[in-house]
Specification:
Layout: E1 3-9, E2 23-24, E3 27-28, H1 29-38, E4 45-50, H2 53-61, E5 66-68, H3 76-86, E6 93-96, H4 106-114, E7 123-129, H5 133-136, E8 143-146, E9 152-156, H6 171-174, E10 178-187, H7 188-194, H8 201-206, H9 210-215, E11 220-224
Parallel strand pairs: 1-4, 1-6, 4-5, 7-11
Antiparallel strand pairs: 2-3, 6-10, 7-10, 8-9, 8-10
Length: about 240
């Protein structure tokens, strides 16, 4: 199975313009993501997908692989779809790697790739067990409900499933809940199809792209991880990074 890792990377960001090129202890953030992804043995190749000449030239400067894409894409999924369409069937699976996680664990990528050993898998993603009540009720942490075969049934910003007749502070004692970790994999033919789907009703309500795929009957396999990489969304997030 040939698997391509794609790192979508935009220069523009409301909260942190130019963050792919921010220096983190001598290397740019995008270079760190690229180098971590290259350590994942399951990936046949890794490429950055951008719409910005500054990022394109920077990737070339450290001899990385990069593809220039349209500036009209509204999501990383659409950007990945353009790349895979240019590849003319060269890869079976695409892994969409977040460009703002400079210390992503390569084993997480390998773990995600393993989901495609199941022939029923159209799309794959990772989930992590929720350990605190604060996180459980945080609407910025999307939750996932999973069936007995490890396929996602529903994603929501609310807690799913709810536990009626039990005090909310006791929910974690009574059941296990999982949050979504935002890294995706897609079979290449599926990626091409889902990038053309219109916004769905549930997606509009929850503001979660993956609900569009569920509403169109694509099977999303999930794998449980115990690791969560730090995402850099603002300049203040850089303060969370420590080096050993």
């Amino acid at each position: 199975m040939k698997i391509l890792g794609i790192i979508p990377s935009r220069y523009g960001s409301t909260r942190f313009p130019g963050k792919p090129l921010v220096d983190i202890n001598g290397k740019s953030m995008i270079q760190r993501v690229y180098e971590q992804a290259k350590k994942a043995g399951s990936l046949s190749d890794v490429v950055v997908a951008t719409d910005d000449d500054r990022i394109f030239n920077h990737i070339k400067s450290f001899k990385g692989d990069v593809v220039m894409t349209s500036s009209s894409h509204e999501s990383g999924t659409e950007r990945c779809a353009e790349v895979i369409d240019k590849m003319n069937g060269s890869y079976d699976v695409v892994i969409n790697i977040q460009g703002d996680e400079p210390f992503i664990d390569p084993e997480q990528i390998n773990h995600l790739c393993s989901c495609f050993n199941d022939a029923k898998t159209d799309i794959a993603t990772l989930i992590k067990k929720i350990d605190t009540t604060e996180e459980l009720f945080n609407p910025n942490r999307p939750k996932v409900e999973v069936d007995d075969n490890s396929f996602a049934v529903m994603f929501s910003r609310n807690v799913i499933p709810e536990l009626p007749n039990i005090e909310k502070e006791n929910w974690l004692k009574e059941s296990s809940f999982y949050k979504h970790i935002g890294i995706y994999g897609y079979r290449s033919n599926v990626l091409t199809k889902i990038s053309q789907l219109p916004i769905s009703p549930l997606e509009q309500k929850e503001r979660l792209e993956q609900l569009r795929w569920i509403e169109n009957d694509y099977a999303i396999k999930v794998a449980v991880t115990t690791h969560e990489a730090i995402a850099i969304d603002t300049p203040e997030d850089l303060e969370k990074i420590t080096f050993k």
